[in-house]
Amino acid sequence: MTWKRNRETEFERKLRANDREYNLSFTYATNGIKTSKYNFFTFLPLNLFEQFQRIANVYFLFLLLLQVPPQNTRTTTSSGVSLSSVWESITDTAVRHFGKVTGCLLSFQADLLLLSSSEPLNLVYIETAELDGSTNLKVRQALTVTGALGDDISRLAGFNGEVCCEPPNNRLDHFTGTLLFGDHKFSLDNGKVLLRGCTLRNTHWCYGLVLFGGPDTKLMQNCGKNSFKRTSIDRLMNVLVLCIFGVLALMCAILAVGNYLWEINKGYQFNIFLPREDDSGGASLSAFLTFWSYVIILNTVVPISLYVSVEIIRLGNSFYIDWDRKMYDARSDTPAEARTTTLNEELGQIKYIFSDKTGTLTQNIMTFNKCTINGKTYGERDTSHQLVAAPPSPPSVVDFSFNPLADPKFSFYDHSLVEAVKLGIPEVQGFFRLLALCHTVMAEEKSKDQLAYQAQSPDEGALVTAARNFGFVFRSRTPESITIMEMGKQQRYELLAILDFDNVRKRMSVIVRSPEGKVSLYCKGADSVIFERLNPSCRKLMEVTTEHLNEFAGDGLRTLALAYKDVDEDFFSRWKQQHHKASTALENREAQLDQLFEEIETDLLLLGATAIEDKLQDGVPQTIEQLAKADIKIWVLTGDKQETAENIGYSCNLLREEMNDVFIVSGNTPEEVKQQLRSAWRTMKPDMAEGMVFLPEKILGKVGSALKDEVVSGEYGLVINGNSLAYALEEAMELEFLWTACMCQAVICCRVTPLQKAQVVELVKKYKKAVTLAIGDGANDVSMIKAAHIGVGISGQEGMQAVSSSDYSFAQFRFLQRLLLVHGRWSYLRMCKFLRYFFYKNFTFTFVHFWFAFFCGFSAQTVYDEWFITLYNLVYTALPVLGLSLFDQDVNDAWSFQHPQLYVPGQLNLYFSKMAFFKCALHSGFSSLVLFFIPYAAMSDSMRQDGKDLGDYQSFAVVTQTCLLFTMSYWTAVNTLFIVGSLLLYFGVTFTMYSNGLFRLFPSAFSFIGTARNTLNQSNVWLTILLTSILCVLPVLTYRFLTILLWPTINDKARQAKAAPPPPSKRTRIRRGSSRRSGYAFSHAQGYGELVTSRRFLRRPAVSHSSHFTPMKSTSSFIPMGRSAGYSPTDGPHNAKAQGVEGTSLQMYRIIQDQTL
User: Fold this and answer.
1) CB-based burial of residue 84 (10 Å sphere; 0-12 exposed, 13-18 middle, 19+ buried)?
2) Contact 200, 206 (CB under 8 A)
3) Active site annotation includes 399
4) Secondary structure string (H, E, C) spanning 789-820
5) What does the DSSP 8-state code read for residue 704?
6) Could you say which of 356, 527, 661, 865 is catalytic?
7) pLDDT per position as a tens digit, 56-102
8) Which of 137, 328, 472, 819 has its Cβ near the most Cβ atoms within 10 Å?
9) Chain centroid to CA 1122
10) pLDDT at 1085
């Protein structure tokens, strides 16, 4: 629940260390957080409020009160609220308990100002997975003045610093404040604050001052509020129940008027036979009492058993999800779990999926997969030794036993690369030397020859680990040096400068001095920026490398170009002086540094390129492709940078080379964002005029209207970053953003905060009126999970916060397609069939009372036996209904995957809607006429075989109710058992209740003595039952036959396709090239290099280690092949469709799907 305080708006926060009285004067929030919906005092009122959001529960309470007067007691009723209330109490208690037991001891529970730590220079190392989904290592550093406090408790207790900072807000990447300590004021920023949810790593201890607690923390400020989630069917039911109430009131009014007229014209004739006890009111009082009596008699149009059955059905379908072994992950021993029972059918109506990236689509594990060095590619699995006719065998892994410092988890399959390293080929050794030097990774030696790398990004860690295994082992660093092992020989390089990475440069460089005294610059970055800075001699090698990069990108790998140059000592001395002057400038510092970086990063010599695989979770591309075939749109909302998110989009088939265009929205001002959005929709809808853009006032004026999808020719994608998204979500631009995004097949929002994730979900819910699903695995996904109609949590590496806030949970993203296409579709289909069946049988049951009223003097006499009325929904029709609702399958799970378009009717509400309800009511009216007038006509002048009259009231009641049960049967292979059982139960109960024995014991309760025996032994009665059943079923059969013949639905086509299996595909998949290489493997944050060289990133000094390598031929420099320049890949179109590229299965599917079904 959202925590609120009744106090004035806070403009700034002031607090003083170790001064409780001063801090309490501001009434700041405590550190208590409430995550459950209820407590002991609020359970009853809040739960009743939630339960009475169902209009039917109000109606049931009204009926209960209506039956208090003895004049109106006709039937009995009970409340179905208690069942849902008990289940809510159980689940809420489980959530509260789950929240208590899953806390992490190393996770901060408040926002702290870091004071001191156990590490040199007061550093702490943290992970922020719960905040932004990233498991990369991050660094925070305390002020020098507070770091001197150390872990001395007495000095910490005497600290009296006063903090003045910003008020509580949801900006995770921003903090401003000052610390007044002594006579000095110190500036505070985000680098000195530890936020709630951060996890402490590689730090023994630290001390901090609490700035924000409980609901004021930035994590909780980004959390969405708990809401009462209702399905679209529940909301539709509220509308239909109101309509039913209106029809019920109309029918009761008609019958009350009929009673009034009958009392005036005919009633006096019966006063002699049945004198009234009190006739003071006359016809008016009789009509008034008749109205309320018929309200009770006809209340079965909305019986309580409907909602009890709904809860049982939802519970049963939830168990199917829990018991599904195909959604069980054996690796983590995690089954799927339905954490709610009220949303199952909503799973069959999903239109938009909002997914996190890290830990949800990917494993956040980077592996060094391939590389190209000096024009030769390495990394292809060698199968040349296998015989052609022999079955393929697994490729052998490269043996790194020659290197005792190799990482045993690293696997590589190309033996030629390690041989090239051993042979001392200069280009190959220079390649790995660059990887071992050009980075900001930290090394920690846990024991002898046991290295652990702490990288700010997993891709940097993968590159350094690759160099480590191939003999170039990064051992340690200081602010002035880097120590590596080169093929068993320790080398210490002097670190002269780090030219840091940023989003504009798209590269980083280091300048080092080798042990021989030579100054070299090593650079790695996006090929588009590296190629522009190559020496003119590199042209031929650049062309070959470009081809290799296209192959790597076509395989979904993240590429990175490597280059170097030797720097003249005199030139570097002059450059170093200018660099020092620019780095200490007070004005235009960044511009001056960029100019110097450009000056030295020229005439580079190309070494090659790396290809890293960002491991997706198993089955992610296939799952996304399958969901796209089901017309489900997927939006990825991630905290990662744009290049990373875009590259993953291509890897998992969310973005494809065959798309007409992928629009990048990265404006820094509202006007730029608006222009980029308008440029995008002009490309997709070139024939649309400027004034036809959807403006807020045009939509907001239509209450309840939904923003319709525009049909565009072609497929498009949209990528927008967090800064631009903040402007796009403003009220003046949100509709234009949504309208543009909804025309795209895929949308990726990168660098977004948890709150922005929730805002995007809310925007779609508000204007699209579509069912949404959010899926994530970390605490930063909780807000969007709560905001969506359905939240799915993945139990991954980022804790269980997402799971505890979700409605459904499992271990792998691939299980989502089974959850939606199988369980969701089945649940929706079963619920819709159940509602149509239930309304049909109860409307028919009730309308017979209405017709009978015209023949019983509007006396509120029931047409059926009271015991039959009581047991009709509870016993006689309960099993067929539950059998239909729990076991019915139109197609099996395999065909649900074979024909994912079967999911589309659920998105369009085709199976149960107002129109379907109206058809059901018409069908019920026809059936009730048949059920009443056919037995009435057949028995009015008929006699039994012994000559006695058959047309009495009790015999008519038995025949009518027997016809009703035969007509209400839903015959399927599985349901036949339940129908036969229900009929046998009906006859058994009927003959027992109408027996002589029960009449003798309770004569007033069992008045139909012998009626069943005397009526059901007549042949004409069974002929009447047969005729009635045929007349009721015939219109349905006719309608179904004509529908299948003339207007077949998707389900009908799928069933017909089952008779003939689809022909095998003749298409063979080939590897395709790619013109896209912008998503390079480089994702650490700007400013990290400055931290390395500022003596604030010191871990341990380098130590000398003995060599364990066999001496090899080695060289520290080399002369590259001849190359030439003059090429820049940025000259070509960014997303142009490659010639000759084969279409994906998704594209081919969309072309032929109408022909195959």
Assistant:
1) buried
2) yes
3) no
4) CEEEEECECCECHHHHCCCEEECCCCHHHHHH
5) T
6) 356
7) 677 667 666 666 655 444 444 444 444 454 444 444 444 444 333 33
8) 472
9) 52
10) 56
Residue 517 pLDDT greater than 50, yes or no:
yes
> If DSSP codes are grouped into helix, strand and coil, which group holds residue 156?
helix
Token pair, residue 905, equals: 């009717």
Q: How far apart are CA 443 and CA 202, in angstroms?
A: 11
Round to whole Å and give the CA distance between 255 and 287.
8
In angstroms, the CA 1083 to CA 463 distance is: 12
Give the count of beta carbons closer than 10 Å to the beta carbon of residue 272. Answer: 7
Residue 698, phi then psi, degrees to nearest 5: -75, -25
| 777 annotated to bind ligand | yes
Is 701 annotated in a binding site? The answer is no
Query: Beta strand 193-194 with 111-117: parallel, antiparallel or unpaired?
Result: antiparallel
Give dist(CA 657, CA 650) in Å, integer: 8
Read off the pLDDT of residues 531-540 as tens digits, 9 standing for 90 and up.
999 999 999 9
Beta bridge partners of 636: 355, 748
CB 872 within 8 A of CB 879: no
Asked if residue 780 belongs to a known ligand binding site, the reply is yes
H or E, element range at 920 = helix 914-939
Cα 710-711-714 angle, rounded to 5 deg: 130
Note whether 1107 and 634 are within 8 A (CB).
no
Judge whether residue 525 has pLDDT over 70.
yes
User: What type of residue is 225?
Assistant: K
Give the phi and the psi of residue 199 in degrees, each rounded to 5: -115, 130
Task: State yes or no: 356 annotated in a binding site.
Answer: yes
Instruction: Please state, in angstroms and rounded to a whole number, the distance separating the CA atoms of residues 680 and 945.
Output: 84
In one-letter notation, the amino acid at residue 53 is: Q
C-alpha to C-alpha distance for 194 and 112, rounded to whole angstroms: 5
SS3 96: helix
Helix (H) or strand (E) holding 522: strand 519-525
Q: Return the structure tokens found at 518.
A: 């030579």
Cβ atoms 816, 897 nearer than 8 A: no
At residue 891, what is the residue type? V
How far apart are alpha carbons 840 and 967 in whole angstroms?
11
Amino acid at 445: E
Strand-pair category, 177-181 with 184-188: antiparallel
- Looking at residue 544, its amino acid is V
Q: What angle do CA 779, 784, 785 make, to 5 degrees?
A: 75
Structure tokens given for 84: 């849902």
Q: Is 290 within 8 Å of 261 (Cβ atoms)?
A: no
The DSSP call for residue 1016 is T
Greatest alpha-carbon span in the chain:
130
Interatomic CA distance for residues 662 and 1079, integer angstroms:
13
In three-state secondary structure terms, 720 is strand
Specify the DSSP class assigned to residue 1116.
S
pLDDT recorded at residue 53: 65
Residue 185 known to bind ligand: no
Q: Is 57 annotated as a binding residue?
A: no
Q: Which phi-psi region, left, alpha or beta, contains residue 631 (left: φ > 0; alpha: ψ -120 to 50)?
A: left
- Give the Cβ contact number of residue 365 at 10 Å: 14
DSSP collapsed to 3 states, 1-38: CCCCCCCCCCCCEEEECCCHHHHHCCCCCCCCCCCCCC
CA-CA distance, 959 to 1018, in Å (whole number)? 11
pLDDT in tens, 223-237: 656 566 778 888 888
757 labelled binding-site residue: yes
Residue 1130 half-sphere exposure toward CB, CA atoms < 13 A: 9
What 3-state class would DSSP assign to 201? strand
Least confident range of 330-344, 506-520, 860-874, 1062-1076? 1062-1076
Asked whether 371 and 418 are in contact (CB, 8 A), the reply is no
- Tally of residues, the chain: 1157
Q: What is the mean pLDDT of the chain?
A: 79
Report DSSP state, residue 302: S
- 786 annotated ligand-binding residue: no
User: 702: closest CA among 690, 694, 710, 714?
Assistant: 694
